[in-house]
Design goal:
The complex is a heterodimer. Chain A is mainly α. Chain A is built from 13 helices and no strands. By secondary structure, chain B is an all-alpha fold. Helices cover about 75% and strands about 0% of the residues of chain B. Chains A and B meet through helix 1, helix 3, helix 4, helix 5 and helix 6 of A and helix 1, helix 3, helix 4, helix 5 and helix 7 of B.
Chain lengths: ~290, ~325
């Protein structure tokens, strides 16, 4: 018996060791990003590397986010950056397209769940919208958009984000709607409520937390989208990932601290969102393959 | 078509006027939802696909003025692309990248999930840390990687210090390892995805068959191979298939970090299409490549969907049977 308990203890230690090792791998780049964002410019790529900022400074944040000139007296100053406007753009674009996607997706999901308005085959085909790489349509899309005057506009980006995230919205909200007992709807129907009223006043409120989870899940996708934003937005409307990618042309200058300060600002909202919905993440990804 | 939409319960009432009006209402309901979707697809997606088709058969570049003047060249462009060795290499690279990173994500995700599916102290903390990479925006991953991976950068420094050996690979500038570097980044970025669904899958496996096998004296190894793994198969498929498809489409990290370089070392399909269209302005060639890639991906996706559906069916059957037995 004692040898068994000893074996168990060793197994537990090994498990902690393995998990901790990956935790370090997973966290180190994020730590480095945060650390660099507080470093003064002499420590951005010093050798040997500074693991902690010494002394920590806020100048990167002040310069990148608020364009504070006094901190930008070096060659690293990039005056054309306007991250606060991008932050607003990103919020509006990601927020609106995600909201549309969840709203329309949940109604569609209700129809699928209760009336099978899409067969299982169609449901999987819907996923194709998501699974075909977006690169194959960006060129004609940008021409089409420029003909419609949607290039460099929020509407254009919202529209295409809405379409490409719709499959996830439908699949995810359907998994929540499937769990709502139908008796309540039957009761509502007998009392004379229309289907639309049943959806908006009974079913959707019942899956409130599921809708929030779906919303935040899709927000992660739209917030970080890069390729479509890169092509469709030019100068008027830029999202945060595009704002960050403007540093690409300046790699000679290696403005690591500034990049890091911007990166932290882009990442923090997503990490907060992700931690809020961490219990629901599995559902967003599993497409009905995980049963409980 | 609409008959199938009527729930089975109302079949016996089919003739009554009430049931008829109900059927009509459901049909109306159905089209008021599907209608907007179809209109949207027809207005946004159809013209895009048609334009793509047009450019595949018409040679046009931005220097030519209006795109409607493009010259009809038939299948010439397809011939050009299919004999372009650079395109061939891009296909090979993309497949290698997607395969490698899919397997990597799966191995890491599975190992972590297997170590974590039973409750233990600190589980929630580890879970939280493990999902962080997935919540990092891909472009941010690329720029952070640049800060970490230059030759005298922190990663090489750290590894040298820990092992005591001079460790100085040129992660980003050595053409022989650049693609592998991006692959490692992809694994870092997306192993959490595999981890999350495999963990959910492992935790959802019913305990009874495992307990039964234990009572019958099966070793842990046999339980793993003959009970847990088969029950987990649908989730494993899902982890592999979705990851592979996403990896085939990977663009932000590869582009923001290396733009296909050094040389053409990281020129995957999305990067090559992007370069052709937006740097060389060969719109038509880009369109042809897009078409080829699209057809290729549709074939892969249809195959993937077949796999997933088969797994879902067997799952449905299994759980349906379990539910019936529980009811009986």
């Amino acid at each position: 018996m004692t040898s068994k308990s000893r074996r168990r203890r060793i197994a537990a230690i090994l498990r902690y060791a393995a998990l901790t090792a990956w935790a370090v791998v997973a966290f180190f780049p994020i730590f480095w990003m945060i650390s660099t964002s507080f470093k003064p410019d002499t420590q951005w790529f010093a050798w040997p590397p500074f693991y902690f900022p010494h002394p920590p400074t806020l100048s990167n944040y002040l310069n990148v986010w608020f364009g504070a000139e006094e901190y930008a007296a070096t060659q690293y100053a990039i005056s054309s950056q306007k991250p606060l406007i991008s932050l607003m753009n990103s919020t509006i674009i990601a927020g609106t397209s995600t909201l549309l996607s969840v709203l329309f997706g949940s109604v569609l999901a209700y129809g699928v769940s209760r009336y099978r308005i899409l067969s299982e085959t169609r449901m999987f085909q819907l996923l194709m919208l998501r699974m075909i790489p977006p690169i194959v349509i960006v060129a004609p899309l940008s021409l089409y958009y420029s003909a419609l005057g949607l290039l460099d506009s929020m509407t254009g980006l919202i529209l295409i984000y809405f379409l490409t995230t719709l499959p996830y919205a439908v699949w995810m909200t359907k998994s929540f709607i499937d769990e709502v007992p139908r008796e309540i709807e039957h009761a509502a129907e007998i009392l004379g409520a229309s289907r639309w009223r049943t959806i908006f006043e009974i079913v959707l409120p019942l899956i409130r937390s599921g809708l929030v989870a779906t919303f935040l899940f899709i927000l992660i996708l739209t917030w970080s989208e890069y390729l479509l934003a890169l092509i469709i937005t030019k100068t008027q409307v830029t999202t945060l990932p595009i704002e960050l990618s403007k540093y690409q042309g300046t790699t000679e200058g290696r403005v690591y601290g500034r990049q890091a300060a911007l990166s932290v600002g882009i990442t923090i909202p997503l990490i907060i969102v992700g931690l809020i919905i961490r219990r629901h993440l599995a559902r967003g990804f599993s497409f009905g393959m995980v049963r409980r | 078509m609409s008959v199938a939409a009527v729930p089975a319960a109302s079949v016996d009432l089919q003739r009554s006027p009430r049931a008829l009006s109900r059927r009509r209402a459901i049909r109306w309901f159905r089209w008021s939802i599907l209608g907007p979707l179809i209109v949207l697809l027809a207005v946004v997606l159809m013209p895009v696909l048609l334009l793509q088709l047009y450019f595949s058969f018409h040679q046009w570049s931005v220097y030519l003025g209006s795109w409607s003047e493009a010259e009809y060249v038939g299948l010439d462009l397809f011939g050009e692309v299919l004999t372009d060795p650079r395109f061939g290499w891009a296909v090979v690279r993309s497949l290698a990248f997607a395969t490698g990173s899919t397997i990597g994500c799966f191995l890491v995700g599975f190992a972590l999930a297997f170590l974590m599916y039973k409750p233990f102290r600190g589980q929630a903390l580890y879970y939280t840390i493990f999902i962080l990479p997935m919540l990092t925006v891909p472009v941010v991953v690329a720029y952070t990687a640049e800060m970490l991976l230059y030759q005298s950068g922190p990663i090489n420094d750290l590894i040298s210090r820990i092992t005591g050996i001079e460790f100085k690979p040129m992660w980003l500038t050595d053409p022989n390892i650049a693609l592998m570097t991006v692959m490692l980044l992809e694994i870092w970025n997306w192993a959490p995805f595999s981890f999350i669904i495999l963990l959910a899958g492992l935790a959802a496996i019913p305990k009874e068959p495992i307990e039964a096998a234990e009572i019958l004296g099966a070793s842990r190894w046999r339980i793993f191979w003959e009970v847990q793994l088969p029950l987990l198969r649908p989730v494993i498929f899902l982890a592999l298939v979705l990851r592979f498809l996403e990896a085939m489409a990977e663009f932000p990290k590869t582009w923001a970090l290396l733009q296909g370089g050094p040389g053409t070392a990281t020129e995957t399909l999305p990067v090559y299409i992007f370069l052709t269209t937006w740097q060389y302005f060969e719109i038509s060639k880009g369109a042809v490549m897009s078409y080829i890639v699209m057809v290729m991906m549709i074939v892969i996706v249809l195959f993937a969907i077949r796999l997933l559906r088969r797994e879902k069916r067997s799952l449905d059957a299994m759980y349906g049977q379990a539910a019936r037995e529980a009811a009986a």
